[in-house]
Write a structure and sequence with these properties.
Elements (H helix, E strand, L loop, with lengths): L2 H45 L1
Length: 48
């Protein structure tokens, strides 16, 4: 196995991990946005 081959395999694994992280991060962002909107609605209810 050449060094270039090893590097390509490592790069591929890094890309896969990055995609997984992006998906997880995306889910977390959606959660934050949803909970943020909910808390704003609650604040408005208290003001009324």
């Amino acid at each position: 196995m050449k060094t270039i081959d090893k590097l390509e395999i490592i790069l591929q694994k890094m890309k896969e991990q990055n995609n997984r992280l992006e998906r997880i991060y995306g889910k977390h962002l959606k959660l934050i946005v949803c909970t943020g909107k909910r808390s704003e609605k609650v604040k408005f209810k208290h003001e009324d």
